[in-house]
Amino acid sequence: MGMTTPPRTLAEALRARDDESLAGLLRARPDLLSPVPGDITQLATRAGTRASVVRALEHLDRFALQTAEALAVAPDPAPYDTLLGLLTGDGRDDGEHHGDAGAAIVDALPGALTTLREQALVWGEDERLHLVRTARELLAPSPQHPSPTGLGPTVAEATAGMSPGRLQEILTAAGLPATYDPVSAVTALAGLFTDRARMGELLDTAPVEALSVLDRLVWGPPYGEVTPNPTPPVKWLRDRGLLLPVSTRTVVLPREAALHLRAGRAHRVPEPQPPAVASVAERDPQAVDSAAAGQAFLSVSTVEELLKSWNGGGPAILRAGGLSVRELKKTAAVLDVSEPVAAFWIELAHAAGLLASDGEADERYAPTPAYDDWTELPAQDRWVRLATAWLAATRTPGLVGGQDAKGRALSTLGPDLDRSAAPEVRHRVLALLTALPPGTAPDPETLLARLRWERPLRGASASAGDTTDLRSRIALWTLNESELLGITGRGALASQSRALLSTGPAEAAARLAPLIPEPLDHVLLQADLTAVAPGPLERPLADMLATVADIESKGGATVYRFTPGSVRRALDAGQSAADLHAFLATHSRTPVPQPLSYLIDDVARRHGHLRIGAASAYVRCDDEAVLNEILADKRSATLRLRRLAPTALAAQIDPASLLDGLRELGYAPAAESADGDVLITRAGARRTPPRSAPVPVPEGPPLPDPTLLGAAVRAIRAGDTAATVVHKDTGPSAPGNALPRTTSAETLVTVQAAAMTGSAIWIGYVNAEGAASQRVIAPVRVEGGYVTAYDHTADEVRTYPLHRITGVAELADDQQT
Q1: DSSP line for 150-162
Q2: Which of 374, 393, 595, 600 lies closest to 477 in space, CA to CA?
Q3: Mind listing the pLDDT tens digit for each residue in 320-338?
Q4: Is the torsion defined by CA of 459, 461, 467, 471 positive or negative?
């Protein structure tokens, strides 16, 4: 059956769609699927709810939203030509919005209208376009919620409740024939304002000051305040209905008059086409890839350095969650970066699952077991994992240092940093960079303008030109973070990043691998107790060097400095002086300087001369003079030491504190076990229990997969068949949506007949929980008090007890298929 009658409701319009179109609606508006609507009517009702319509409007681009706004001020229903006229105007202006702009609107309007139809915001044929009522209420003008178009109410709306006498006075002042019928009076006044010639004649007689008042109101807001004794220009406008009263002190410019002054346009500047993203520089693509690869390697090294600094247990977690400001500053100093950049690296490590809480009573941050697996990967694979985690993360470190809605400070790794729009904005920014030629760095302002066109702001911030909205801030953070992470190089998208976005992690890692420098197996020792690493080092060498020396500076070459403390750290880790001499001789391209050899031997000679154990704690030494020296030192008073024997002292503090205290006094003690053996301190031994990476917070309901969409469409179609089926009113069957009622004998006979003929019937059914429903079934077998049938409502074969069927009715002949 072809549809010859235009749909009268949104439900009828949806019912006329094919399955692919319904699936497109559910894909574009996934909130309609929770739960799956029972039929088309429920789908239409849910699509018209305020929350769902607001979400749909917020996902429109600027021109589609302008089209919806124009329909909100157009008559309902509105012909296509009327809508087009509201967007292009009637040609009476200076031509600014005609010509190429008008042609662009003509070309773009069908696409915008298709978008609105697909999302069930507009329904009906081109001759009768309906904007759904909720969208009209949201976009229509009112004193509390001014229209985005800046238009006010119609003459009929503004004069509702006005006395016939006042209407007659306005008609007389405007030069219109007298009528005491309010409806005729309103029609006459509206006709005047929409008549181009007569409206022009009326405005030709207006004082210049009155025209200035209209100029201030014409593009909105259309409301103005007046005094009890208005000025002559305002009085002239009010007497002729060009300003109509809203209250005793407020007047409004009626919509019909404003449209005449606007030359018929609903919007001052229609924007049918998205603004182009301009470039600020054209760079060599190879140079971009090299710069990005260098930054990618630096990002991997920075995350590794961060987690190494927290190897023995990181900073404590605040009671409210997150990292304290002091700890963030300490971490920034360790990484030699600013605090906002340090917050980014910490959040990135957390998003990648490399960092988490240890879950202890004294809760601290520490690397996870996944960190150890990550360090074993090649550099390019480690970078891919970081980049992938960043793309999907809803955590926004750019918010750190700000305040939440209650005025509380937002801290690194703390609560309230999730912004569900972040992944979508990041992907969109990178997609716009992908569309540019390789090596092109975009202009941030034009990039933001494009993003605002795709998701225009609504409300006061948009009209005020606010550039600090969250999406714009996330976009700017994306540009900065992608440069830090090596997604971009010198402002342009690198080829390995294009591969990551289009092909996947494997291709991105393959393209990045040749650009990352090969790790070195040597350093250059200097006479000033430093070692220079001219490039990245192999992991065993880097780990050992980080144990025996301190990093003094980083960059293209890393400088390590040997100190008594760093050498003692290596000895505490189980190395001997001979081991250190052999290590340096093996991995240095220059001879080992004599001062460095002397430093190692001197520290090793004194290392372990004192022994610390548990009493609460004790100190023992074979040299009594050393113990005497310690007791005589006034600085040791805080250690609360007393002599137990000529070669042993006891302390009232724990061994770790005693160890640190004696080191501060200049000694080199070693910890020992209960058996008298030296305890070796292994670096990086503290790990959290296995932890999963944090799950991003989605923006609204998740996008349905094709399988779910297909099942949902089938269920809605089946439910709609049951709800709208036409049945024969034979016997005492109930009309409308009431359950059919038949006797047990009649039910059995009808079901058996349907099974033999293969026809479908309409039944009422009450399940074990007492819930009643209507169903359309095609019986297959009837035996043992049960009927097995294909249930069109559930789109599957089911078995029903006959005693739970309240009644049956045959379908009308045109419903049998």
Answers
A1: -----HHHHTTT-
A2: 393
A3: 889 999 999 999 998 889 9
A4: negative
